[in-house]
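Internal ticket - ligand job 53, zinc ion:
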Amino acid sequence: MTSWKCSNCGYTLEADAPPEQCPSCGERCDFIDVSCYIPECDTTTSGGVDERL
Ligand SMILES: [Zn+2]
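stdout (structure tokens):
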């Protein structure tokens, strides 16, 4: 699954491929692949050096 974000209204959805038409704003907008930008996938906080050490 890939996360897609509507560049027009910011609506996000998970699908293998971006929809032709945004289900939120109803426009044929560009969908941005935001798979690696969701909090669960944020490597800047879960990876790297632990500041508490
Ligand atoms: Zn939209």
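Auto-summary: The chain has a mean pLDDT of 81. The helical segments are 43-46.
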